Amino acid sequence: xxxxxxxxxxxxxxxxxxxxxxxxxxxxxxxxxxxxxxxxxxxxxxxxxxxxxxxxxxxxxxxxxxxxxxxxxxxxxxxxxxxxxxxxxxxxxxxxxxxxxxxxxxxxxxxxxxxxxxxxxxxxxxxxxxxxxxxxxxxxxxxxxxxxxxxxxxxxxxxxxxxxxxxxxxxxxxxxxxxxxxxxxxxxxxxxxxxxxxxxxxxxxxxxxxxxxxxxxxxxxxxxxxxxxxxxxxxxxxxxxxxxxxxxxxxxxxxxxxxxxxxxxxxxxxxxxxxxxxxxxxxxxxxxxxxxxxxxxxxxxxxxxxxxxxxxxxxxxxxxxxxxxxxxxxxxxxxxxxxxxxxxxxxxxxxxxxxxxxxxxxxxxxxxxxxxxxxxxxxxxxxxxxxxxxxxxxxxxxxxxxxxxxxxxxxxxxxxxxxxxxx
Length: 423
Ligand SMILES: Cc1cc2nc3c(=O)[nH]c(=O)nc-3n(C[C@H](O)[C@H](O)[C@H](O)COP(=O)(O)OP(=O)(O)OC[C@H]3O[C@@H](n4cnc5c(N)ncnc54)[C@H](O)[C@@H]3O)c2cc1C
Description:
This protein is an alpha+beta fold. Helix 1 (14-26) runs parallel beside helix 6 (159-172), helix 1 (14-26) packs across helix 10 and helix 2 (60-77) crosses helix 10. It contains ten helices and 20 strands. The protein is 26% helix and 27% strand. Strand 10 (206-213) and strand 11 (216-225) form a beta hairpin. The strands form four sheets. Strands 1, 2, 8, 9, 10, 11, 17 and 18 form an eight-stranded mixed sheet that branches. An eight-stranded mixed sheet has the order 5-6-4-13-14-15-12-16, with helices on both faces. It has a two-stranded antiparallel ribbon with strand order 3-7. The longest helix is centred in the N-terminal third of the chain and has 18 residues, at 60-77. It is elongated. The chain has two domains: 2-50 and 160-244 and 353-409, FAD/NAD(P)-binding domain, CATH 3.50.50; 91-151 and 246-350, D-Amino Acid Oxidase, Chain A, domain 2 (2-Layer Sandwich). Bound molecules: flavin-adenine dinucleotide.
């Protein structure tokens, strides 16, 4: 079977969905199909996300991508009345005075909505200790904290509901979805074929001519790659670099009576939910999951976490018990004997060069990669920028009317410094 469209999008995660919607919005007459190997949308890393959101990033590029997406998500929830489980419950960093994190967040507090929170207030509210047992601290490289920084334009969201929103908007606009379609590769063909065997030759201009799948060949004028950690593997044979590498990331869902009570301890908000909290050591995060009466725990461990990749990654319970549980209980008795009620694992698609998404074009292919653990909170802007890249535009207006220079997140004229706030 040979199927022809104007545009084929590979991947129905938030990046592919948002891009498909924005491309169609700009070009209503195009026939667009979104292909995904899963049985439905949002089943890749989008469905495995911890889905915290924040506009607190070191680089302006990432602040723009996140803040405009957050504003768009708020508009979905408020004016469009589509529940995406968004709660502005804040993002709390616990830091030592004069530490690099203290200096960075203090700087950022001049340009983003961040306020300082007294350590006693944090301890009294969340029961997270700032004075740790010295022996255990020495052994485990743990630090106490002198204050908290609370990001106010931050919180939690439900990624499957965000995906649901985009999917429905895509369908309403006439975009076709073919699920259960696994793309095996992209074929390069000459732009002006001569019908000689062995084409394309080195001296011929080339383009993507078709893609092979388990359901036959698909053809389009334009292709959009939004396959996240599968991007590099799918592009390898074309000679196009995906500029991303996978790192396994795990989430552990825990609960007990004290944790359930902790979930409700709002700090400087009226949400009745504790903030997404980053402990002072090793980047362990506490993500309130009130819908499940639980807390989701995770960490972006780097050294000793290899770049290997498997189709069906599993959470490692010994990693939870030997590494994470020990850290949690050093900070708070609330975690003693917490019940582990669920766990899962996925991957961050890391752009190891600067921890910022790549959105670039090569022949008739637009590539989105390297969302670097923040693809949900930047998801709407990523779709708008990818749509502009697809159309060959230099600039795009993001949702909050901020002008964005698309080449900044491209490959050839990239203009991004290393993002230091990837967690
Ligand atoms: C544990 C964890 C915690 C995270 N926490 C956060 C967070 O707090 N905040 C945040 O903003 N981000 C977070 N992220 C990152 C976020 O989830 C990703 O950046 C985002 O989901 C990427 O979306 P995507 O659409 O690019 O990729 P995906 O959602 O993975 O979508 C790619 C799609 O491509 C499909 N596909 C792949 N290969 C093929 C093929 N060969 N043929 C057909 N289809 C194919 C897949 O099935 C998949 O549906 C987290 C990620 C993980 C794993």
